[in-house]
Write a structure and sequence with these properties.
The chain has about 750 residues and is α/β, with parallel strands linked by helices. The protein is about 25% helix and about 15% strand. Strands 3, 4, 8, 9, 10, 11, 19 and 20 form an eight-stranded mixed β-sheet that branches. Strands 7-13-14-15-12-18 form a six-stranded antiparallel β-sheet. Strands 6-5-17-16 form a four-stranded mixed β-sheet, with helices on one face. Strand 3, helix 7 and strand 4 form a beta-alpha-beta unit. The N terminus is likely disordered. Bound molecules: flavin-adenine dinucleotide and iron/sulfur cluster (SF4).
Length: about 750
């Protein structure tokens, strides 16, 4: 620091709001405008590393008069307990509850990438946005573990049991536990196949390979989180809007991603933020926590370019395989894993060789109203197909209809995912080894382009470990963003742009699903809080929409959590923005809220992409991800169409206050998220694709991609059944010819 300058150290958790807080506090102390230029923070997980940056900033301020050290952690409780009551219904303002909420805030803030405590401490009375943020946080604090008897008003009291942790007596054991994991030092030097990622694609590929007699190592970046956390925590689930790191990973230790925002600027994004585009990083990947909607793509979904032409600025293309080629694998997956639902009236679905193995669950009150309304509107409807047992099947129980479904662990294993179907089957063969908490950091290829080994890295007792394991076959199933990352970060002198990337295609055509829909309040209660919640759908708008490219299904929503419902009601304006948390008005609205939503088929573009920044590496030495691109204007038109059809449907069902989703403006941040796909496009031409129809990476015939990355387009419906079916097709193709 230069002579005459003095340092300012502001030590408290980093967050977007921290700069503003620092400015306010420093200006108040010094009365000098110059202080307002000083913004510095010490990042929670690396307190020792930041001060030099901070001193640099401080030295730019000639007026800096003294060294000030502030630690917000020590000064918060009183301030917290004075702000929290302003957001609560008066009946909840009790000293015991306030203390409990303040303590919970301190605990949760430690797991938040965005500043929770800031939102409470520095909310400005009278500023609507700030008051809104305060109510959102206080609502999350109140319902962090569901609904408890001490906070439920008379309307919600009958639902306390539904919205709290499932009874341990009724739980069924997981089919995999920590004993199923191998330790890194016990790995063999060589396997027939290494499968990278244990999600939808990886699990089913591992099963097919292990059942063919091959020795298989499945490497999974995530671990096996505690079931208690996955059952009881309403905020650290991937469906919560709270911004906390989900238990299903990745956690605060995860690397940042560089993301291009809608205005063209770039920002470093933490894993708990939506823009990071997380699915889930845990044993089973997304299938551990997903909602399990199990839609087939139809013939037109696989032939979008020939059906609609290619709009300007889009990279729309046909799949290199037809529906008829995929159909047998759809049927196999439906029968193997167990899909319930039917009968289907989907006019855009292809022929089926077998009906679904299980019938649907019973109708919800909202479902019955929507069914009658659809009949009046002339819409076809069907139960939402679900990878959920409606009767005991495959050694797994039937659905209990609990209220903690999507985003939570299924207490009885009725919801099928890799962790309770394909991975246990793979292990049962005796040919598969499962390695958790380990990342594939590089695929090493020889001069002939063939993969020779995979470099693995992990951390144990605070120390990094590394292993290199040889394999005859590498199956890449790390999810659309991470699979592209691994190919790009495995560059060699011979493949300087990354593996399979001679034509600059790896990472391009990133897509997910823009969602359209509407919400509404009905005069009567329409919610029964029985999971899974998704019940009725129409597939009429998947195609055939005048002037629109593609379209999508519409369905009612998964069973919500109390905290997300209150946030949502306020954000949509269905309840007054100043309605206190837990007020009678809010509680009544929670039981009258109906939602209909659906994913729209995106037309995607080559500029929507995953890249890596090789000059920035995470603590494992891996290049960090850069995400860029935007939805296409056609995606927004499709989304608006779905929103208006959803609003019509809810209105016909008798809703009194209907709100279609607000329109979006271009450019948007890149699309990806839970339905991420497309980054290793499947095709017949190496100039425009990354893998052939058999999933093999061009120029690297023993590297195969078997996850959502291969999707050329992502359908107007949830993608996972297609990921399973296509991965099974690819894996069995390999088994047949290898
Ligand atoms: C809350 C939620 C609800 C959802 N609901 C639905 C639904 O109702 N219907 C539907 O169709 N889809 C749904 N999805 C999406 C669905 O889960 C995904 O489409 C699907 O899991 C993607 O499969 P995948 O094989 O491409 O990748 P994933 O399932 O994401 O699996 C990839 C795995 O690879 C691991 N990994 C990443 N990098 C590495 C590495 N370098 N080394 C080792 N391992 C690595 C990850 O940790 C992850 O476990 C939902 C997802 C979530 C989170
Ligand atoms: S509602 Fe969902 S989580 Fe609950 S038992 Fe049924 S499938 Fe499992």
């Amino acid at each position: 620091m230069a002579d005459g300058h003095r340092a300012i150290v502001v030590a408290f958790p980093s967050s977007p709001g921290v700069g503003a807080t620092a400015q306010r506090m420093l200006a108040a102390r010094s009365g000098s405008a110059c202080w307002q230029r000083v913004v510095a923070c010490v990042v929670r997980e690396q307190p020792a590393r930041q001060p030099h940056r901070l001193l640099g900033t401080a030295s730019a301020c000639p007026a800096a008069p003294s060294l000030i050290s502030m630690d917000l952690r020590r000064s918060t409780p009183a301030a917290l307990t004075s702000r929290i009551p302003t957001a609560l219904d008066p009946s909840l303002v009790r000293p015991d509850l306030l203390d409990a909420l303040a303590a919970r805030l301190v605990e949760l803030d430690a797991s938040a990438p965005v500043g929770w405590r800031d939102a409470v401490l520095h909310s400005s009375p009278g500023d609507p946005a700030s008051e809104q943020a305060l109510r959102a946080v206080v609502g999350d604090l109140l319902y962090a573990r569901g609904l408890t008897a001490d906070v439920a008003g008379p309307d919600l009291a009958p639902y306390v049991e539904a919205w709290s942790a499932p009874d341990p007596e009724r739980q069924e054991p997981l089919l995999l536990d920590h004993a199923s994991f191998a330790a890194p030092e016990t790995l063999a030097a060589q396997y027939d196949a290494i499968v990278i990622g244990s999600g939808a694609g990886g699990g089913i590929a591992a099963q097919a390979l292990a059942e063919s007699g091959r020795s298989v190592l499945v490497v999974e970046r995530g671990g096996l989180p505690r079931r208690r956390d996955l059952h009881t925590d309403h905020l650290r689930t991937p469906r919560s809007g709270s911004g906390l790191f989900p238990h299903s990973g990745p956690g605060p230790e995860a690397e940042k991603r560089e993301v291009m925002l809608g205005d063209g600027s770039w920002r470093d994004v933490l894993a708990g933020e939506g823009l990071w585009s997380n699915n889930a990083m845990t044993l089973g990947g997304g299938t551990r926590m997903y909602g399990a909607q199990a839609w087939r793509f139809g013939p037109k979904d696989l032939a979008m370019a020939s059906t609609y032409g290619v709009p300007e600025g889009s990279s729309l293309a046909d799949w290199p395989i037809t529906y008829d080629e995929l159909e047998p694998f759809y049927t196999r997956v439906e029968q193997m894993l167990g899909v319930s639902g039917g009968p289907s009236t989907d006019p855009w679905e292809g022929a089926r060789s077998e009906q679904l193995p299980m019938g649907p669950l019973s109708r919800s009150p909202l479902g019955s109203l929507l069914a009658a309304a659809a009949e009046r509107l002339g819409l076809g409807t069907q139960p939402v197909p679900l990878l959920i047992n409606t009767r005991r099947r495959g050694g797994r129980a039937a659905c209990l209809r609990c209220a903690q479904c999507v985003g939570f662990d299924c207490p009885v294993g009725a919801r099928a995912g890799s962790h309770n179907t394909t991975l246990p089957s793979a292990l049962e063969t005796g040919n598969a080894t499962l390695l958790g908490d380990a990342q594939a950091s590089r695929i090493d290829v020889g001069p002939d382009g063939r993969a020779r080994s995979v470099e693995l890295v992990g951390e144990r007792d605070g120390r990094l470990w590394h292993r290199t394991v040889r394999a005859d076959l590498v199956v890449l199933a790390a999810g659309a963003i991470e699979s592209a990352r691994l190919l790009l970060d495995s560059a060699t002198d011979q493949h300087p742009a990354g593996l399979g990337n001679a034509a600059d295609q790896v990472g391009r055509h990133l897509q997910g699903h823009a969602y359209g829909g509407a919400s509404a309040l009905s005069a009567e209660r329409v919610v029964d809080l029985r999971g899974p919640g998704v019940d009725i759908s129409t597939a009429d708008f998947r195609h055939g929409n005048e002037g629109i490219i593609g379209g999508g299904i519409l369905a009612d929503e998964f069973v919500p959590t109390p905290s997300s419902t209150q946030r949502y009601l306020r954000e949509t304006g269905l309840v007054a923005a100043d309605a206190p948390v837990g007020s009678p008005e809010m509680e009544r609205a929670m039981l009258r809220l109906g939602k209909v939503v659906g994913p729209v088929q995106e037309v995607t573009s080559a500029d929507s992409r995953v890249q890596v920044n090789r000059s920035r590496r995470d603590r494992f030495g891996r290049a960090i991800v850069r995400l860029s691109g935007s939805l296409h204007r056609e995606d927004l038109r499709g989304r608006d169409l779905l929103s208006s059809r959803a609003a019509d449907w809810l209105a016909e069902a008798g809703a009194v206050d209907v709100r279609p989703m607000s329109p979006m403006r271009l450019p948007t941040p890149p699309s990806g998220g839970q339905h991420q796909a497309g980054t290793c496009r499947m095709g017949t031409d190496p100039a425009t694709s990354v893998v052939g129809p058999d999933g093999r990476v061009w120029e690297h015939p023993n590297i195969v991609v078997a996850d959502g990355s291969t999707h050329v387009t992502n359908g107007g419906a949830n993608p996972v059944l297609t990921i399973y079916a296509n991965a099974l097709r690819i894996a069995e193709g390999i088994v047949g010819v290898a």
